[in-house]
Amino acid sequence: MEGGDKLEKVTRYDFIPINNKARKDGNGFIHDTPVITKTGVFIYHEPNGTIRKELRLPEDVFHADSLASYEGVPLTLQHPKGLVNPENSDKIPIVGSVLSQGIQDGNNVKAKIVIQSQKVVNSGMRGLSAGYIADVIPEVGVYEGQEYTHRQTNIRLNHVAVCKNPRAGSIARLNMDSNEIIEEEKETDKMPKFKTDSGLEYEVLPEVLVAINQLKADAASAITKAIEVETAAEIAAKKAQSEMDAKDAKCDTLKAQVDKNAGELEKVKKDAADSIQSAVTTRIEMLKVAEKFKLDKADELSNNDIKLAVIKTVRGDGMDLAGKSEDYIQASFDMCKEDSVTRIDAMAEQRRKANEKLKLDGKGEAQTSDEARQKMIDKTKNAYKGAK
Question: Which of 91, 128, 186, 194 lies in disulfide reach of 172, CB 3.0 to 4.6 Å?
């Protein structure tokens, strides 16, 4: 058995006759306990021309809530258009009511009814048809040799109609005595007619008509299944295409992200290289400054330690740098470098001027301070020679 989870709430009208003898009360009202409906597979014609075979299982038909819904519903002459309710009941030919809850009788459901209108007697109609609402679930299977495509659940009665041709067959009929009713035309002598699609009618044996209707039902069922298969294939194809489109979009997104990350990676590499180069350049410059100021073990000092050492060398220990900001220390360092360069340049200028005052040696080159001193000593030692 195959099932589905699609739930559909529908209105159904089933037909059935009665086996008990009806009786009249003191008011002339007719009482009976007929069969209202039964279990089994029922065939329904849909508005779109298709048919559905719906199963009514005993557990659904004889459910306590379903049987309780029979009591108090109206008895109508033929089915109204739609369900009976307080707003439309005065416009519907209500000819009686159901007096009891549903009563299980084998595969059938009986109920006590009362007919309070002569219209039923005059109409000649003796069939009973249950009008109810139910939830219908798609479900394919076979029940007592009959195939079905759906199953009814949550069956709730709305009304019972007196009609001519009950869906539940000859068992769903009123049982009034012959002197209380208008004799119906005996149809046992008449053969049923089969109507072709072109509109022609032919009398056929009942079993032939049943076979024809079964073939038509099977053909309609096959068409319905084919449509369902085709629809399922279309849905599957659309789903596959949708999934493929989603994957393509995801791939495009990932590719764009990869391209973006590649560009960002190159930028990071360049920034890192520039940062390293800048750090190296700065370190070289700091080591040159340390060498100029003759700092010991400068290669073991950090750049900030070199700055502090230079400031201390120029300004002395009296300058307190504790708690000073990096900007303050940098500014002090820059000033110390400039002062140092100025003093070094001044000393070089002084030496240059001093050399100009010294006498040049025989080679025309300026004497160094040591050479000038030695010359002075030699001159003093030989002074006596000149005096002689």
Answer: 128
